[in-house]
Amino acid sequence: MASITIRNLDDDVKTRLRVRAAEHHRSMEEEARIILRDAVTGRLAGPRNLAAFTRECFASMGGVELELPTRCAIREPPDSS
User: Fold this and answer.
1) In angstroms, rounded to a whole number, what is the distance separating the alpha carbons of residues 41 and 57?
2) Mean pLDDT per segment of 10 residues, for the chain of length 81 residues?
3) Is the dihedral of CA 59, 40, 9, 47 positive or negative?
4) For 1-81, where are the alpha helices, taking DSSP H only?
């Protein structure tokens, strides 16, 4: 396995990494490995659009069916003369 060293890491980033690692009951090194692995495999990328995001949010609840209103004819634009 390869090793890397990350220099000039902001103190705030290091603190956030330490807190995140503690929340997941992992070492900072393991947390960094998981974050990097997810980033390069695309698992951190969120949904590409609002519809996909909404579907993802409600999927665990069995989804949701919305009744769509019927569409009306388009109104004529106002006459400015």
Assistant:
1) 22
2) 91 95 95 91 72 81 82 87 76
3) negative
4) 11-23, 28-41, 50-59
